Amino acid sequence: MYESLIVMLSGIIVYGLVYQLYVKWFDRNIIQSDPTRLTPAHTYMDGVEFFPSNKYVMLGWHWKSIAALGPVTGPALAIVWGWVPGFLWILIGNSLLGWLHDYNAIVTSVRSE
Question: Considering Cα of 99, then 77, then 83, then 81, what sign does the dihedral take?
């Protein structure tokens, strides 16, 4: 019964550490994002294709787009080799690859208009 609690808490701890130590460093030093930079939604606002959206709507779109191979491959690995490799695949894949790909794609898209 407590195994699922341990898995959930270890996932939360790993994601918290990755965010505090790796994601923030990568954003400041590599990406060098500028929160004051206008997005195409503001510069080309026409009310049809380009319009600013609520941050919660954007968060929903982000979660929708990241649900791809990682959440499918993790359970498949768990069926074949057990839950530990599947769990590690999800943690490591999301921590080191998933967010990095999505975040770089959106920043590059905004910078290139």
Answer: negative
